[in-house]
Amino acid sequence: MKRVFLSLLTVGTLMSTATAAMANDVCMPGPELRASLIDWYGEEPVAAPNKAQQQIWASPRTGTWTKVHFDANGVACVLAQGDDWLVGAAREALLASLAD
């Protein structure tokens, strides 16, 4: 019984954290990704890109957020995405992750 409880607890913990920052390995031309974030999710940049060319996009309307990397060749890749952007601690932690 103890093993079953620990297994369920572990699975539950992994599932709850996986949706918050799970990347989809999506890469495409930067303008196409920007248009998708704006049109599909209503997201907009919440900070300028950092030195590593990473940027957070978010939507206060839907609560979604996306962390994007823009490379020198004009390709953009989704590094992480999630929900609950309006939750203060998560928002601050994401913005802090962009600090160099």
Shape: globular
CA distance, first residue to last residue: 47 Å
Q: Helix count, per DSSP?
A: 3
Radius of gyration: 16 Å
Strand content: 15-25%
The strand order across the widest sheet is: 1-5-4-3-2
**Class by SSE composition:** alpha+beta
Largest sheet: 5 strands, antiparallel
What string, H for helix and E for strand, traces the elements in order?
HEHEEEEH
- On the 0-100 scale, what is the average pLDDT? 76
Number of strands: 5
Helix content: 25-40%
The low-confidence parts are 1-23
Q: How many structural units, i.e. domains?
A: 1
Description of the molecule:
The protein is of the alpha+beta class and 100 residues long. The chain has one domain (22-97). The protein is built from 3 helices and 5 strands. The protein has helices spanning 2-18, 30-41, 88-97, and strands spanning 27-29, 44-45, 54-58, 65-70, 75-82. It has a 5-stranded antiparallel β-sheet, covered by helices on one side. Strand 2 and strand 3 form a beta hairpin. The radius of gyration is 16 Å and the shape is globular. The relative contact order is 0.18.
Keywords:
100 residues, alpha+beta, five-stranded antiparallel sheet, 5 strands, globular, disordered N terminus
List the helices and strands and how they pair.
Blueprint: H1 2-18, E1 27-29, H2 30-41, E2 44-45, E3 54-58, E4 65-70, E5 75-82, H3 88-97
Outline:
The protein has helices at 2-18, 30-41, 88-97, and strands at residues 27-29, 44-45, 54-58, 65-70, 75-82. It has 100 residues and is of the alpha+beta class.
